[in-house]
Write a structure and sequence with these properties.
The complex is a heterodimer of chains A (about 110) and B (about 120).
Chain A lengths: L3 E4 L2 E3 L6 E11 L4 E6 L6 E5 L3 E2 L7 E14 L9 E6 L11 E4 L1
Parallel strand pairs in A: 2-9
Antiparallel strand pairs in A: 1-3, 3-7, 4-5, 4-8, 5-6, 8-9
Chain B lengths: L2 E5 L3 E2 L5 E8 L9 E6 L6 E6 L5 E3 L7 E6 L4 E6 L8 E7 L12 E2 L3 E5 L2
Parallel strand pairs in B: 2-11
Antiparallel strand pairs in B: 1-3, 3-8, 4-5, 4-9, 5-6, 7-8, 9-10, 9-11
Classes of the chains: A mainly beta (about 110), B mainly beta (about 120).
Chain lengths: ~110, ~120
C-alpha cells in the first residue's frame, strides 16, 4: 500500500499570500497518477488537480500542481478568502487508492 | 450536468449491514469510468472504500475487503455499497464519486455526491 504523507498539517496564511502544500509518497507514484482535492466544512471534496498537474474543469489558474515520483506539490499562487479549506492528495498508481491525511489552510 | 445522489438508512445497528445506493444522472454508468465509494469519519480524513466498473469488476480497500461488496445495476444506472458486520468505527459520512476515468486518462474523482451520514448505534 502506498502511504501518502501531507505536510504541513496546518498552514496559517493571509489572503494574497502563496500557499505551498506537500504530498510525499512511500513509493513511486507511476505516471504521476496523483490528484488533489479541496474540502470545505459540510461539503463534499472537489477535484482540483488530476494526473499531478492538470487542472480540473472550472478550477482557477491560481491552483497548480507539480511533481513526480514520490514528491508532489500543490501551489495556490495568491490565496483568496474562499481558498481557506482542507486539501487532500490521492494516488491512483496502485490499489488501494490511498489519500493523504490532509493539510488545513487557515487564516 | 452529471450528478450523483446517495441514499440509504442513516442508522444501522451494530453487527448489522450498511447498504447505500448511488444514483447517477447525466452520465451512463456504462461509460469508460470507474465508480467509487469514499468515507469520512467525523472530524477525520478521507478513506477510499472501493470501486466498480460497469462490467462488475471491483477493487476494494484491503482493510474492509472481507466485509464490503460494491455492485452495479446498469438497468437503473446506479451502483451500490454493502458493508457487513458494522461497528461504531464504521460511523462516517459516505460519498459516492465518479472516477477514475481511465479511458480519457483522468486519474481523479471528478464528480461527487453530496454524501450521506451513517451512524452505527443500537
Amino acid at each position: 500500500e502506498i502511504v501518502l504523507t501531507q505536510s504541513p498539517g496546518t498552514l496559517s496564511l493571509s489572503p494574497g499570500e502563496r500557499a505551498t502544500l506537500s504530498c510525499r509518497a512511500s513509493q513511486s507514484v507511476s505516471s504521476s497518477y496523483l490528484a488533489w482535492y479541496q474540502q470545505k466544512p459540510g461539503q463534499a471534496p472537489r477535484l482540483l488537480i488530476y494526473d499531478a498537474s492538470n487542472r480540473a474543469t472550472g478550477i482557477p489558474d491560481r491552483f497548480s500542481g507539480s511533481g513526480s515520483g514520490t514528491d508532489f506539490t500543490l501551489t495556490i499562487s495568491r490565496l483568496e478568502p474562499e481558498d481557506f479549506a482542507v486539501y487532500y492528495c490521492q494516488q491512483f498508481a496502485s490499489s488501494p487508492l490511498t489519500f493523504g491525511g490532509g493539510t488545513k489552510v487557515e487564516i | 450536468q452529471v450528478q450523483l445522489q446517495e441514499s440509504g438508512p442513516g442508522l444501522v445497528k451494530p453487527s448489522g449491514t450498511l447498504s447505500l445506493t448511488c444514483a447517477v444522472s447525466g452520465d451512463s454508468i456504462t461509460s469508460g469510468t470507474w465508480w467509487s465509494w469514499v468515507r469520512q469519519p467525523p472530524g477525520k480524513g478521507l478513506e477510499w472504500i472501493g470501486e466498480v466498473y460497469h462490467i462488475g469488476t471491483t477493487n476494494y480497500n484491503p482493510s474492509l475487503k472481507s466485509r464490503v461488496t460494491i455492485s452495479v445495476d446498469t438497468s437503473k444506472n446506479h451502483f451500490s455499497l454493502r458493508l457487513t458486520s458494522v461497528t461504531a468505527a464504521d460511523t462516517a459520512f459516505y460519498y459516492c464519486a465518479r472516477g477514475p476515468s481511465v479511458d480519457i486518462g483522468l486519474y481523479g474523482l471528478d464528480v461527487w455526491g453530496q454524501g450521506t451520514t451513517v451512524t452505527v448505534s443500537s
